[in-house]
């Protein structure tokens, strides 16, 4: 865990960290471009983006570990960054947490109580006397997060705290982390690995693509109305229907239903088995869409009929290679090819 003392934000309010025009270079190459961002007290914000988008670089710059090439960063209070790797000393769990508190200058008389409180918040109190080397991957993550919580920073940043865990361990840790974070008033920024983590944890979602913040808003709102095609694609709108008037309809699998009486004919191009069903890649005259179906599902090459309800319509097919604003959301109506 790394930290940096704050530089006061002068206009008050509940903004605890602010960047304006932030540009960061690595090895002579711009990694972040013009980042404007406010982090507010009591708000949990997720940062989502593909590998190489600059997510970890942004956290390191906001925490003061990387000097910006341009722009400003203001901090109110103390900022803590918990890196992705849960490195623990070869001591007991409690000793690992109190070591972090000592590094932050917390008086010795307060350390044990604060360590105990933080471990309990992460549902890890039963691990207190265990040697760190005996912990499982999920247990190490709990201790790592407890150590970050124990120092009570004004701004807490977490870099992919759930990466590399099995599904059951991740789900449990997500629940406990969300509860622990909401019990405190700090501003929190979390780099998450996938969309499900953002929906489960956060009040606000940031999307970082190619070093630029391209979306900022409540997770559900961004999923229903992404501000551009690039954001829609990243958030799972992987199907495309082209229409004769030049508009395109982007869909997610949830928008497409196999329907014997449906108005759209398609051929199953590929089937992808899932835990409780099958994902279908469907080829149409107007494009390609994806759907979910119960097992066993139709076979590759089979002809099927579809209904499409919902999706996101953009004004021009040329927008597939450009950045445009969406003009309409199609909802609660079956889509039929236009004549």
Please tell me about this protein's structure.
With 339 residues, this protein is α+β, with helices and mostly antiparallel strands. It has two domains: 2-224, Rossmann fold (3-Layer(aba) Sandwich); 229-329, OB fold (Dihydrolipoamide Acetyltransferase, E2P) (Beta Barrel), CATH 2.40.50.140. Helices cover 24% and strands 33% of the residues. It is built from eight helices and 19 strands. The chain has helices at residues 55-63, 93-103, 108-121, 137-150, 167-182, 195-201, 219-224, 229-234; strands at residues 2-4, 15-26, 29-40, 44-48, 70-75, 79-82, 155-159, 187-191, 204-209, 212-217, 239-242, 248-251, 256-258, 264-274, 277-284, 287-293, 303-308, 312-314, 328-329. Strands 13-17-14-15-16-11-12-18-19 form a nine-stranded antiparallel beta sheet. A seven-stranded mixed beta sheet has the order 1-6-7-8-4-9-10, sandwiched between helices. Strands 3-2-5 form a three-stranded antiparallel beta sheet, with helices on one face. β2 (15-26) and β3 (29-40) form a beta hairpin. α2 crosses α3 and α3 (108-121) crosses α4. The model is unreliable at 2-7 and 321-339 (pLDDT under 50).
Which architecture of the largest domain would the CATH scheme give at its second level? 3-Layer(aba) Sandwich
Helical percentage: 10-25%
For the termini, the CA-CA separation is 60 Å
- Strands side by side in the biggest sheet: 13-17-14-15-16-11-12-18-19
SSE run: EEEEHEEHHHEHEHEEHHEEEEEEEEE
**How would the global form be characterised?**
globular
Largest sheet: 9 strands, antiparallel
Assigned CATH superfamily of the largest domain = P-loop containing nucleotide triphosphate hydrolases
Structural class: alpha+beta
